[in-house]
């Protein structure tokens, strides 16, 4: 049966906000969790992922978890170690203890960010491309994907790892014309990841049907994800405003763009 009650961690964040607005229409009852209060929702659980008691109670009785909580950009290692590495480990341990079968994990394109962008149009980067983080942040996402693999093999917990591109109301950079994940497509993707059958550990790229995409979307299609939006509608105006990045700019040369030169 399709999961009904879903724990949304990181519910106060940008992606959390757009999923809070959209997932109930798919029939889910959401339980919200974040270290900071969720605006407009007094029932949300305000706790750290490292608070075991709160986390176990949050996970208890849900059908699935959508795990967004964590640091979402480059940061000092000590902070990533706590929120992203230990926090994700604690989440999986809580899920194992409480018998939760399915986790949708927010990974990131930055797990493979140092991969060169395909030079030829129409050549796509596969989900099986070697992990190649561009930041300590990306490395923390590699840990999450490997943890998901371990918990699938060892304990049978199913994970769909979403290597999200750029999830925001509209693309803000020329690179995002390739990496954009529209809010509506994000909800479609999470719904597909929650309901797909015969999952072990699946890795998919989370972007819209962008004309300039450089990722292979077949893994997402196999889960039933059909994106409907395309960043191309913003292209003319965005390029007129910002201009194209220079040919040797990481925004042009590598998947991870400006994260290649980001320092903690
Ligand atoms: P965000 O930074 O807006 O939200 C993250 C939320 O996690 C925040 O509300 C924060 O309070 C919470 N959080 C952080 N540490 C926590 C802890 N120790 N315990 C409990 N809650 C904690 O990030 P956004 O943009 O909403 O992203 C959500 C997830 O998706 C993140 O894991 C991010 O790495 C990932 N992602 C997002 C992308 C995007 O384009 N927005 C792209 C790729 C990945
Ligand atoms: C990410 O992983 C970040 O969380 C988000 O803020 C964006 O910068 C995104 O990647 C991106 O690559 O555009």
Automatic annotation (TrEMBL):
KW Oxidoreductase (keyword) present: yes
Taxonomy, superkingdom: Bacteria
Keyword Transferase: no
Domain NAD-dependent epimerase/dehydratase: 6-165
Record keywords: NAD, Oxidoreductase
Annotated family: Belongs to the NAD(P)-dependent epimerase/dehydratase family.
Name of the protein described by the UniProt record: NAD-dependent epimerase/dehydratase family protein
Native source organism of the sequence: Streptomyces pathocidini
């Amino acid at each position: 049966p399709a999961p009904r009650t879903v724990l949304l961690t990181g519910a106060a964040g940008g992606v959390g906000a757009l999923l809070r607005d959209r997932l109930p229409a798919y029939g889910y009852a959401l339980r919200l969790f974040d270290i900071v209060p969720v605006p407009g929702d007094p029932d949300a659980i305000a706790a750290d992922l490292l608070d075991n008691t709160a986390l176990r109670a949050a996970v208890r009785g849900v059908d699935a978890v959508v795990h967004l909580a964590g640091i979402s950009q480059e940061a000092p290692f000590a902070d990533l170690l706590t929120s992203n590495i230990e926090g994700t480990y604690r989440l999986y341990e809580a899920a194992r203890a409480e018998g939760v079968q399915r986790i949708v994990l927010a990974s990131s394109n930055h797990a493979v960010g140092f991969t060169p962008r395909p030079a030829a149009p129409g050549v796509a980067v596969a989900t099986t491309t070697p992990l190649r983080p561009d930041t300590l942040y990306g490395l923390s996402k590699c840990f999450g994907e490997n943890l998901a693999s371990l918990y699938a093999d060892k304990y049978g917990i199913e994970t769909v790892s979403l290597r999200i591109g750029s999830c925001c109301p509209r693309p803000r950079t020329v690179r995002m014309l390739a990496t954009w994940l529209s809010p509506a497509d994000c909800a479609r993707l999470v719904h597909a990841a929650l309901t797909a059958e015969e999952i072990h550990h699946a890795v998919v790229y989370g972007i819209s049907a962008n004309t300039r995409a450089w990722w292979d979307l077949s893994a997402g299609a196999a889960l039933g994800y059909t994106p409907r939006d395309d960043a191309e509608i913003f292209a003319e105006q965005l390029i007129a405003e910002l201009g194209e990045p220079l040919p040797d700019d990481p925004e042009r040369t590598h998947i991870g763009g400006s994260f290649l030169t980001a320092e903690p």
